C-alpha cells in the first residue's frame, strides 16, 4: 500500500475537528455525501463529527427512533425511502452479527461507493464476505474493514459524541484485494474524525483487541458482578478504585455477547492465563504466613506495574505520566466551564480531566492532568484567580 497521506495529516484534521462548529470547513479529505447505516452510538458519532466538519451526511437505521434521534442530535439527515443517493462512502455501523449482511447490501446498492464497517471484530466479518457468492470481485475491492478504538459504556444515538475518535487509534484492516481508492477513502474518514490510522491484518487485529479491549470488558463485568449481593453499607464505601475498574461493566450486553462470540478463540488463551494467576493468588492467600508467600504477592503486583507501564500515551506516544493539579469546585452551574476557560487562558495544555463528587457534599474535586513541569505554573495561576487548589 502506497503513502497516502503525509504524517501530519491526521493531526491537521484533528485540529480541524476539535476547532469545528456548525460552520462548514473546507479542510476535509472526504467530499461526501456519506451514508451512515446504523445510527446508534458509533454511527451517530461518526455522523456528528463529519457533519460538524461540513460534510453532507445521510442516515439510515431499521429503528425509526434511532434514525430520528441521530438526526436530532445533528448527525445528518435521514435518507428518505426511495430517495436516490450516490455516496462517496457508506459507513456500516450496525451490530457485529449483522454487519457482513449490511456491508454486502451496501456494496450492491451503491455501485460507486467505498463501503467500510466499524465493527469491533474483523476476521469473522471479512470471512463471511469472502464466502458470499452473491458478491463480485469488483464489489469486494470497494470494501475495507475498520475499527475505531473509541467508544463509551453507553449505546444509542443520544450518547453520540462528534469528538469521540479524536487522538485514538482507528484500525484499518484492508484485505488483499481492497483497492487503493477504498483504502484512501477509509483513511480520509479516520483523518476527518481526528483518529490515528493504524494498519493491521484482520486476524492480528482480533488478537490485539482480545487482550486490550475484550479482556478489560470481561474482567470489569466479572468484578462488578461480585457486587450483586453486597450490603448497601458496603457499597456506600465505594471509591475511585471500584469506579475506575468497573466503568465499562455498564456496557450493553447485547453488543458484548456478539463481540465475544465472534472473537472467542482469541480470548480463551488470555482467560486461561488469568485463571492460572488467580489460582496462584488463591493458594498464596490461603497461607500468607508461608515462606515465599509475600514475595509471590510482590511479584504479582510488580508484573501488574510493569504491564500498566507499557500502555502507550496519546497518539501512540510512549507511556507518559502526567502531573495532576487538584481543584475543589462548588457544586454550582458553570463552575467547570469557568475553570476550563481559566486553564485555557493560562495557555497550558490540558491532557486529561477527571471529576469526582463526594456524595451528599456541595463540592466536587477536579483533577487536571498537565505535562510534568507545568503543574506549579498552573497552580499559581489558579490560586491567583481564587480557585481552591488542593496541595
Ligand atoms: N460501543 C462502542 O464502544 C464501540 C466502539 C467501537 C466500535 N463499535 C462497533 O460499532 C457498531 C455499533 O455499535 P454501537 O455501540 O453504536 O451500538 P448501538 O446499539 O448504539 O447502535 C447499533 C445500531 O445499529 C442498528 N441496527 C441493528 N440492526 C441493523 C441492521 N441490520 N442494519 C443496520 N443497522 C442496524 C440499531 O438499530 C442501532 O441503532 C458495532 O459493530 C460495534 O462492535 C462499538
Ligand atoms: O471506552 C470504552 O467505553 C470502551 O469500551 C471502548 C472500546 C475499548 O475497549 O477501548 C470498547 C469496544 C470497542 O470495540 C472499542 C473501544
TrEMBL record:
Gene3D superfamilies: 3.30.70.260, 6-phosphogluconate dehydrogenase C-terminal like domain (1.10.3660.10), NAD(P)-binding Rossmann-like Domain (3.40.50.720). SUPFAM superfamilies: 6-phosphogluconate dehydrogenase C-terminal domain-like, ACT-like, NAD(P)-binding Rossmann-fold domains. The keyword Aminoacyl-tRNA synthetase does not apply. It comes from the Bacteria. One of its GO terms (biological process) is tyrosine biosynthetic process. Its EC number is 1.3.1.12. Keywords: Amino-acid biosynthesis, Aromatic amino acid biosynthesis, NAD, Oxidoreductase, Tyrosine biosynthesis. Residues 32-319 form the Prephenate/arogenate dehydrogenase domain. Residues 324-391 form the ACT domain. PROSITE patterns: ACT, PDH_ADH. The keyword Zinc-finger does not apply. It holds the Pfam family PDH_N. This is Prephenate dehydrogenase. It comes from Neomicrococcus lactis. The lineage of its organism: Bacteria, Bacillati, Actinomycetota, Actinomycetes, Micrococcales.
